[in-house]
């Protein structure tokens, strides 16, 4: 099997010749790995570690200039949604943290209508086949539908969690506008990338360290319909649906499986109560699991042998039938994780 065949077989629950692998990492980790292997590109690191990977592409932005406000911090930038980000340094690296939430002051539906919503015309969809051609023999992912997350990012987390209770009509209207943009943007992506795109994200972050950020009742009332809209659009083009959901999202899994999610990421089993064998028994015929290798304790603070043991344990629980699991860290590898532990992860998967 080549890299793409191995990934797609796992998603389809077909046996693979060896466990498929993927990687997510911060820029600092990519720099460490490139230095370690003496290479100058991320793709060369994939080759050195023999990682299968799901390679992400997106249509280039060609819309109006996105100038930051004059009083924003040094290095700040604005995205197409009007959100403001600025670099924030931590002990082990730097992250672009959101500090400006463009609809935080909105109070009425009229306020929402006065907002400059992003326009699907602002992107060059014709570039997608050429972008995908940079990754021959690898699975291609394009698209990111995340209605709850973008509600958080437009309003700020606190307001977005209160909105469904305090402003239900306002919330339905806001979510509807988010969903309308995502639907048309992704329709154009899927048309331009027909036959090229294997996977798309219909995704969100409903889980916290212990439990959900919102109740299943609110999920059903406000978010399920637009998420289903994104899933149905992807399926109409024969594209597999990848759902990233941090933390303890366990109580939503019956709904997500029923709605047609194909791939569940990141399997943060230290968050909440995850019995991995029960997870496989309940959902292994519908969900392909992606991630799993713990990024809170094992990868940053464990030994290479701890990492190898965890990979073997995960494979035994989530892929006893030799399919339905893509081995990867359970989120971005952080700079505190040693190169030795990262190498051990992929060596263990190859040799299983």
Give a topology summary.
Layout: H1 3-11, H2 27-37, H3 42-49, E1 54-57, E2 77-78, E3 84-89, E4 94-100, H4 109-114, H5 128-132, E5 139-145, H6 147-155, H7 157-166, H8 168-192, E6 199-202, H9 216-236, E7 240-244, H10 253-259, E8 263-265, H11 276-283, E9 288-293, H12 298-301, H13 304-318, E10 325-329, H14 339-351
Parallel strand pairs: 1-5, 5-6, 6-7, 7-8, 8-9, 9-10
Antiparallel strand pairs: 2-3, 3-4
Structural summary, described in words:
This protein is α/β, with parallel strands linked by helices. It has one domain: Alpha-Beta Barrel (TIM Barrel), CATH 3.20.20. Helix content is 43%, strand content 14%. It is built from 14 helices and ten strands. The chain has a seven-stranded parallel beta sheet with strand order 1-5-6-7-8-9-10. α7 crosses α8. The protein is globular and about 60 Å long. The model has no long low-confidence stretch (mean pLDDT 97).
Enter the CATH topology name: TIM Barrel
Total DSSP E strands: 10
Mean pLDDT: 97
What is the percentage of strand-forming residues?
A: 5-15%
Order of helices and strands: HHHEEEEHHEHHHEHEHEHEHHEH
Distance from first to last alpha carbon = 16 Å
Shape: globular
Radius of gyration: 20 Å
The top-level CATH class is: Alpha Beta
Q: Please state the structural category.
A: alpha/beta
What ranges have pLDDT less than 50 throughout 5 or more consecutive residues?
none
Number of domains: 1
**Largest β sheet strand count, sense and barrel closure:** 7 strands, parallel
**What does the oligomeric state look like here?**
single chain
The appropriate CATH architecture is Alpha-Beta Barrel
For the largest beta sheet, what order do the strands appear in spatially? 1-5-6-7-8-9-10
Helix content: 40-55%
- Enumerate how many helices there are, as a single number: 14
């Amino acid at each position: 099997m080549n890299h793409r065949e191995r990934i797609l077989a796992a998603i389809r629950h077909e046996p693979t010749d060896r466990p498929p692998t993927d990687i997510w990492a911060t820029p600092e980790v990519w720099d460490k790995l490139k230095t370690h292997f003496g290479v100058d590109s991320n793709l060369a690191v994939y080759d050195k570690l023999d990682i299968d990977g799901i390679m992400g592409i997106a249509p280039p932005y060609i819309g109006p200039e996105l100038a930051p406000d004059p009083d924003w911090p040094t290095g700040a930038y604005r995205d197409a949604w009007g959100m403001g980000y600025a670099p924030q340094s931590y002990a082990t690296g730097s992250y672009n943290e959101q500090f400006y939430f463009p609809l935080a002051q909105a109070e009425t539906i009229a306020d929402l209508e006065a907002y400059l919503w992003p326009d699907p015309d602002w992107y060059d969809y014709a570039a997608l086949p050429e972008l995908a051609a940079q990754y021959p023999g690898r699975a291609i992912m394009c698209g990111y539908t995340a209605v709850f997350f973008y509600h958080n990012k437009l309003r700020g987390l606190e307001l977005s969690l209160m909105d469904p209770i305090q402003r239900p009509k306002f919330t339905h209207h806001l979510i509807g506008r988010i969903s309308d943009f995502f639907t048309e943007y992704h329709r154009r992506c899927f048309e331009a990338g027909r036959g090229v795109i294997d996977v798309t994200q219909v995704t969100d972050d409903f889980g916290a360290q212990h439990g959900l950020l919102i109740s299943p009742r609110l999920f059903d009332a406000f978010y399920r319909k637009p998420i289903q809209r994104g899933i149905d659009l992807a399926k109409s083009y024969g594209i597999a649906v990848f759902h990233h959901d941090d933390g303890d999202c366990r109580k939503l899994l019956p709904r997500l499986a029923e709605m047609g999610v194909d791939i569940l990421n990141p399997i943060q089993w230290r968050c909440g109560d995850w019995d991995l064998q029960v997870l496989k028994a309940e959902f292994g015929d519908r969900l392909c699991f992606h991630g799993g290798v713990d990024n809170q304790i094992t990868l940053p603070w464990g030994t290479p042998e701890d990492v190898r043991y965890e990979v073997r344990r995960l494979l035994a629980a989530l892929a006893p039938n030799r399919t339905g699991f893509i081995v990867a860290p359970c989120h971005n590898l952080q700079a505190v994780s040693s190169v030795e532990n990262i190498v051990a992860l992929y060596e263990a998967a190859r040799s299983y």
